């Protein structure tokens, strides 16, 4: 049994696999965020590259062929992370297709100069831009500014950490769906996490899901988020026809000390949490893990990869039940 490979639609490989003397300590999210800021100031370009390569090596080992990673752009990292990941992108192009999202992790309120840095990152040749609706006092204004910056160049992806906190008062998904519809952006826009959707009133949740489906936008869920907040309403989104994706999110950093990079494990975790147990539900998860981006550039790149994973299994459902390593990475003739 062989596949093109697995898709990791959301990661942070620029600041994971932190080197000694890093040692994870549990603390409030705000404290761990401050530790991350301190680490970003100190990390050199080579250290960022080393962290990213460690993550990609794990992912490749488990059969991942496509990774979309957010790369922090702010006065702390400046453009070091983008420059480092651009080099990794080129060095790994025969093994993994790597798409880079210039990400405003820290918000415009804290660092207004990030707006200029994001424009410079776009000029360096990233594939998308990302925002974080919970980091600024006005989440709607944050969305507008990121979308405005996206018009600065012809980017493939506009992505938002949306309602990541899970709080009812932090619910910007309806506005993002509205703007996506009005601007005709469709699947170019991705909402990541959408945790508050799990906590608002039923009527509001279902109206929002209907608006998300109508907008044509995509939702990416990261099952490891369950450690601190509820996962979004994945089944309701799927039943409404929303395109869904799965990501690994953080790997071995101040927010998550674990993470193998094995996308089948993340799919398995999602199945356990939300009871995706029926055969059709298992098939849905396998599909979300293996569906390639609907963009010609990525498809061409995937066709030219040197390897693809193969499994000694009789049924696709066993992939999710066991989350096995590939028996081998089959070498493919490149014409």
- The shape is globular
Number of helices: 12
- Spell out the helices and strands N to C: EHHEHEHEHEHEHEHEHHHEHE
Sheet with the most strands: spatial strand order = 1-2-3-4-5-6-7-8
Estimated share of beta-strand residues: 15-25%
Short description:
The protein is of the alpha/beta class and 335 residues long. It has helices at 29-42, 45-61, 80-91, 114-123, 139-150, 173-183, 202-215, 234-239, 263-274, 279-290, 296-303, 317-322; strands at 6-11, 64-72, 97-103, 128-132, 157-162, 189-193, 218-221, 243-246, 307-310, 328-331.
Features:
335 residues; alpha/beta; eight-stranded parallel β-sheet; two-stranded antiparallel sheet; 12 helices; 10 strands; 40% helix
What is the topological layout?
Elements lengths: L5 E6 L17 H14 L2 H17 L2 E9 L7 H12 L5 E7 L10 H10 L4 E5 L6 H12 L6 E6 L10 H11 L5 E5 L8 H14 L2 E4 L12 H6 L3 E4 L16 H12 L4 H12 L5 H8 L3 E4 L6 H6 L5 E4 L4
Parallel strand pairs: 1-2, 2-3, 3-4, 4-5, 5-6, 6-7, 7-8
Antiparallel strand pairs: 9-10
Helix pairs in contact: 2-3, 6-7, 9-10
Can you characterise this structure?
There is one protein chain. This protein is α/β, with parallel strands linked by helices and 335 residues long. It has helices spanning 29-42, 45-61, 80-91, 114-123, 139-150, 173-183, 202-215, 234-239, 263-274, 279-290, 296-303, 317-322; strands at residues 6-11, 64-72, 97-103, 128-132, 157-162, 189-193, 218-221, 243-246, 307-310, 328-331. Strands 1-2-3-4-5-6-7-8 form an eight-stranded parallel β-sheet. A two-stranded antiparallel sheet has the order 9-10. Helix 2 crosses helix 3, helix 6 (173-183) runs parallel beside helix 7 (202-215) and helix 9 (263-274) packs antiparallel against helix 10. The chain is globular, with a radius of gyration of 19 Å. The protein starts with 5 loop residues before the first strand and ends with a strand.
